[in-house]
Design brief:
Distance between the termini: 23 Å
Largest sheet: 7 strands, mixed
Number of strands: 7
Strand order of the largest sheet: 1-2-3-4-5-7-6
Order of helices and strands: EHHHEEEHEHEE
Number of helices: 5
Oligomer: single chain
Radius of gyration: 14 Å
Shape: globular
Strand content: 25-35%
Structural class: alpha+beta
Length: about 140
């Protein structure tokens, strides 16, 4: 397990790594939207995300190296969390550490939506105390 992981709010300086991670084949397979994202669309999304008061975008760092991201979207009194780990840092327990840190940042109820075939993220959600509520069209809905 990697210790010394920190979460910080994302900025436009993170555009390149977020773009790379978003278009990684494994990330796309696990995402609601599986299409390749163009640079211009990504930049527009990031600018909108950073200025959206109902969204928080975090970068996880280990020794000042960006290793993953967590997004939190607020709707109806609940923050829905989604996460992704840099392809170079997968299978090192980073997602579990990121989620554990993120959970501490919120007082409101939390949710997560994970594709049913994404076994790694299901385990991460469960380790962080998320409870499966239902499955719908191949997506598992968790609450905490």
């Amino acid at each position: 397990m990697m210790m010394g992981l920190t979460l910080r709010l994302a900025s436009m300086k993170d555009a390149d790594c977020l773009f790379e991670w978003r278009n990684d084949p494994e990330t796309r397979k696990a995402s609601h939207s599986t299409e390749w994202v163009e640079v211009a669309d990504h930049m527009q999304w990031l600018k909108a995300s950073l200025s959206n008061s109902n969204r928080r975008l975090y970068i996880a760092e280990k020794k000042h190296v960006s290793v993953g991201t967590i997004r939190a979207d607020f709707d109806n009194g609940t923050w829905t969390l989604s996460w992704s780990v840099s392809p170079r840092y997968r299978n090192k327990g980073i997602a579990s550490q990121m989620l554990a840190l993120a959970v501490k940042k919120f007082n409101e109820p939390l949710a997560a939506e994970v594709k049913a075939q994404n076994i790694a993220s299901i385990k991460v959600a469960q380790r962080a105390g998320f409870i499966l509520q239902r499955e719908q069209e191949g997506v598992l809905y968790f609450q905490r």
